[in-house]
Amino acid sequence: MIRIHLERAFDVGPELLWELVVDPDHYRFWTETFSEGSTFYGEWTKGSAIRFVAEDENGMENGMLSEIVESQWPEFISIKHVGVVMDGADDYDSPLAREWSGAFENYRFIPQADGTCIFEVEQDLPEGQAEEFKENWGKSFDRMATRLETSGDLGKVITLREKSRNRPEIIWEKLVTPEKVMSWNYASDDWHCPNAENTLAFGGEFHYEMSAKDGSESFDFWGTYTEIEPGKKLYFVLGDGRNVRIDIFEKPYGCLIEERFEAEQQNDLHLQRQGWQSILKNLAR
After folding, report:
1. Ranges of the chain with pLDDT below 70
2. Alpha carbons within 13 A on the beta-carbon side of 201
3. Which residues constitute the domain of residue 143?
């Protein structure tokens, strides 16, 4: 195993560069040089399992099984590879899996005095693959720069995804039935959703009470529906004018839920991503 080191300066601060790396929509763009259709499933939080995979022509996943060893927003991410995915199966024991097991991939986001940021990559690789990966990283850096220049969504729209073993119709019922919404619509165990109302129609409104269990805080999370397709999509505008899109895709394992929402200005992007991801994870269960 050898370690390579690369870096590139980008004309944004570390917060936006972090979003470019961890947001699924942007990640798919800049990792195209490594594997066509490359994506990830999981969270970029310390201790989380994460899968870096691409689907082949038969819909089977291939890629890496990994875990996030460290995640310090917006400064540092350390990934440890623990196995591989071959034809949809998790593999920890084959010669290929053992070759990659224990390899680290580290990202540093180093702010500069002029407001730019250096993205530094350290990666452990099996012998003989250094030059190929250096070339791919160079191309990925170019694609990252292109994304920064052309994307109007970076830092404005946050994308989240969760796999679920439930069928789309089950997720849909949890998503739109007030009694079921109350069972999952909270970001942490010290919050809950004690009341929910829903008029499921174009132009109809939903009102969900989001409340701290100790009674210290409470607010009405509400919006107006703009597009409804049962079992597939639910789009709405929040009371503060921000757009939210929820799409449900049927998969062999159950379904994939994708959620995109416009970020607000009161809290940093990382905190918003964490809170909404926790709620989405509850829905997926």
Report:
1. none
2. 3
3. 2-150
